[in-house]
Structure formats: C-alpha cells, structure tokens
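Submission sheet (multi-component)
Chains listed below:
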Amino acid sequence: MSMAVDFSDRTKNKIRSLYRKLLKKHGSPSDSNQWKFWCKRPKTYYEKEIIIIESILTQRTNWKNVERAVQNLKMSKLASLQSVLKTNNEIIEKLIKSCGFSKQKAQRLRNVAKFVIESGGIKNLEKMPTNVLREKLLSIDGIGKETADDILLYAFERPVFVIDGYTKRFASNHKLSDRNSYDFLQQLFEQSLKKDYKIYQDYHALIVIELKGTK
DNA sequence: CACCAGGAATGTA
DNA sequence: TACATTCATGGT
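Outcome: structure written.
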C-alpha cells in the first residue's frame, strides 16, 4: 500500500486551477476526435472491451496505428475479448501489426481476455472494489500501472488518476512536485481533486491534448 | 538503472 | 533516398 502523503494547499489549488484553464482552453475532451470515445459516457460492454483492447495496443505506439488495428479487428469481426481468446495468435498478430510489438501484444490481449472471461465478464468485474481489481490487472503479464489505470479509469469508470509521460512532463513544467514517480504523482493528483472519475478522465485527456506535439 | 520488444509517421539533409 | 526520432510502455 502506498503511504499517505500530505500535499500543500497551494499545490492542490494549483492543480485545480490548471484543470479549469485547460478546460477553458481546449473545451471538453468528449468533443475532441481523439478522446470522445474514451471519455464518452455511458458506455456499452462492447465499448468497454474495445477500450481494454486499445489500452494494450496503444502501449509505446502512436494512436493512429491503434485505430488502424481496431478497424482491422472490427472488419474481421474479431473486435471482442471472446474473439481474441478463440482466435489463433498469428491471425491477431497480422491484424494488429500496425501497432508494432504485435507478437507481444497479441499475447497480452489474450492474457487480458482470458482474465476477463474467466472472471465472468466485465459485468462481474464491475462488482469488484477498485483496489482489488487493480491488483488483479497488475498481476496480468503485459499490464503495468499505466495500462491498469487506463482500464480502471476509462473502461471501468473508477476514480483512478492515470500517470503517463505527458502527465510527468506537465507536473514538471508547472513545478507541481520535486518527485515524479508514478505513485507519488498519482497521489498528488488524486488528493487535489474531487474523487470523480469524469474529472480524472477529462483532466488526463486535456493534459495529453495540451502537450501533444511539444517537448 | 539499462536494455529490449517493432511498425508507421514525421522530420532532416 | 537514407537515416533519426517519436509515439496513450512493460518486463527482465
């Protein structure tokens, strides 16, 4: 378990203020092409499965490549966890080749699919407490903190703040913290904001939108 | 902490 | 055309 950390009110206010600024500048991510699907609400089970698939495919990869792969899966009627599980890895590998690491990612898709289906589907997993579900996701080969939290936040709609390279840069740009470890930054954002998954979804998307194309 | 797992788009000369 | 860099990372 992570240690409780107390952050200054000044820092917390800054984080809330930055959120309002980004929202004003870019508008709601639900209206952006890139994020309207992940930030959409409500979502069907089918859409949640797609998000889980995309969260694996997008690892270390450009989003355009992910879209292509998902299109291929859809055209082959294989864009579901059931389909992934009952289809040969080589077939999946070809369809997702645009994302790179296709051999690894095909296996990773299979690992998550196996987990979800053996757990009784998303419907059943939704009854699970967030911390328990997070631990289970992290125990799957090919799912680290960022991917686990992507799945928790965008597919399961749990208030878990996702930390990625953009968020680390964002924190560093605005001098929000002297540390930039995953756990520390996650605590920082979560303790500064209302525990609301919708805010976490939008904030993370806005950070990516704000910093995309910069360095 | 360093290294490796690729494919595709974009930038540079 | 050739080569470098970057991209919604995770495992060893």
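Remark: Chain A has a mean pLDDT of 95.
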